[in-house]
Design a protein that fits this description.
single chain, 482 residues, alpha+beta, Hypothetical protein af1432, 3 domains, 6-stranded antiparallel β-sheet, globular
């Protein structure tokens, strides 16, 4: 049996933020309960109801986040992923709010910081009119028809939370929920951005900035777990998740290379928009199973030029616009000009283009795509980048990717010299050769089951060899999500 490992030291900054959210979250819950009660007692325009609305909006904005989620799970309430611990006098308030959610079939509610009283009151009236026999979907439809943009009904399963076990570390709950929420909202925001771009013919730069800002804040806050989510590839909407993954990887790579906050925001937007030109590629080509024929390749390889054109339609001229145009045009060109589009005269690729090109290839070859029996594992993709493809990509960018995902990226199966079977779940802090792993143990039927805790690979233990998923007959995605 392996020696027990000491739990990693908690980051004081993370702990302080956790305590701040817990304290302010209690205020949000209390104000929300009071507001729902006032809604049943008073008509629109009543001063008491208006005062309750103003106090609740102030409580939401005091959280200092883009949005605030209030979730009911079992006997607990979570605010932005933090499980609250009500004091004696608050217990009736918490129970009443949980009853409200259960009666309406809700998992919770989500509020944006931009929420105003008029929109809040409109939603509360919809909520009040929704009878308990209705499922949540009609309420969502009504909110959508009313064009409510800053308040949403949600289901508990959306947040990826489960009922906490006794003694569970609350900061872990907070980090997991916060990370999943940032990623999910980024994919949703990117979907809206791309659909709006297809509709108008030009990207909404401010919307792209909002999507990227939450990613930059998350990574600068020291939470590398956002990078780990890029290893989960089974998304219903691959195109949007791919753009978000490339943006996350590029931002983290830029952070490792010493970019400023403004530069990280710039490369994040450029990464998000790098494949905008695919809007002009016929859908039957993008979704074609099997190999492309020459006509398919000709249509597909126009997307960098189309991306340049689409981004160039933005009004005015800014550095962010020019950087995004350049990345859209150059991200498949390769530093040795072996890629596309081909140019008459050799050119030095931009720094952002070099980084996005590496992030783009890594995420693309490790994703589930039509015509592939299985995607490459992260380790296999690095071997390609560091081996046969090394001359096509910038070496500093490739090094930054290795520092970002580690030599054994999340999802890599490892056999150690002692015979243990490990699953890499995150890069090791400061040492790309020492990933954070979960040991795979034998389940009831002999199937590999991940151990409940993860720990960095011990410095005295060596990796004997790397296994392919078929060598162990496991579903890597399922193990990573466990």
């Amino acid at each position: 049996m392996p020696e027990p490992t000491n739990p990693p030291e908690r980051d004081p900054a993370v702990d302080a933020e956790f305590q701040r959210v817990r304290a302010l979250g209690g205020v949000v819950v209390t104000r929300l309960h009071g507001l729902l009660r006032a809604m049943r007692l008073y008509d629109s325009g009543n001063r008491a109801l208006q005062a309750q609305q103003a106090e609740f909006i102030d409580a939401v904005r005091a959280m200092r986040t883009d949005e605030v989620s209030v979730l009911g799970m079992a006997e607990y309430i979570y605010v932005n992923g933090v499980r609250l611990r009500p004091e004696g006098s608050q217990l009736p308030v918490f129970r009443a709010l949980l009853d409200e959610f259960e009666t309406r079939g809700l998992g919770g509610l989500r509020f944006a910081a931009a929420l105003e009283s008029e929109e809040l009151e409109q939603f509360l009236r919809l909520l009040h009119d929704d009878c308990s026999s209705k499922p949540t979907a009609p309420l969502e439809d009504e909110a959508s028809r009313a064009t409510l943009r800053n308040v949403w009904p949600i289901r508990a399963r959306e947040a990826g939370l489960s009922a906490p076990a006794d003694g569970e570390e609350p900061v872990a709950d907070f980090d997991r929920h916060r990370t999943r929420m940032v990623f999910r909202r980024a994919v949703q925001g990117t979907r809206e951005l791309m659909l709006r771009t297809a509709d108008t013919g030009r990207p909404a730069l401010q919307q792209a900035r909002r999507v990227v800002q939450s990613i930059v804040d998350h990574l600068l806050y020291g939470e590398g777990s956002l990078v780990e989510l890029t290893a989960l590839k089974r998304h219903d909407e691959y195109t949007y998740a791919h753009c978000v993954n490339v943006s996350i990887l590029a931002i983290r790579m830029g952070q490792i290379l010493g970019f400023s906050r403004a530069e990280l925001a710039g490369i994040g937007v450029a990464g998000l928009l790098h494949d905008t030109g695919k809007i002009a590629v016929p859908a039957e080509v993008l979704g074609k199973p099997g190999e492309f024929d020459p006509q398919d390749w000709a249509a597909f390889r126009r997307h960098p030029i189309e991306g340049l054109r689409i981004v160039s339609r933005l009004p005015g001229v800014s550095e962010l616009m020019l950087d995004s145009m350049r990345v859209a045009f150059e991200h498949h060109m390769n530093v040795d000009h072996s890629g596309y589009p081909q140019v008459r005269e050799p050119r030095e690729l931009g720094a952002f283009s070099r980084i996005v090109a590496v992030a783009d290839l890594f995420d693309a070859v490790t994703s589930h795509r039509a015509g592939r029996s299985r995607p490459l594992t992260g380790h296999e993709a690095l071997r390609v980048l560091l081996g046969s493809e090394c001359g096509h990509f910038d070496r500093a960018a490739t090094w930054a990717l290795v520092r970002t995902v580690g030599l054994y990226p999340a999802g890599t199966l490892l056999r150690t010299g002692s015979g243990r079977l490990l699953l890499s779940v995150a890069p090791g802090a400061g040492n790309p050769r020492r990933p954070v792993c979960r040991e795979l143990l034998a389940g009831p039927a002999g199937e590999p089951v991940p151990a409940p805790t993860a720990a960095p690979l011990d410095e005295h233990e060596r990796v004997s060899h790397v296994l392919a998923p078929e060598d162990v007959d496991v579903d890597i995605e399922e193990l990573l999500a466990a």
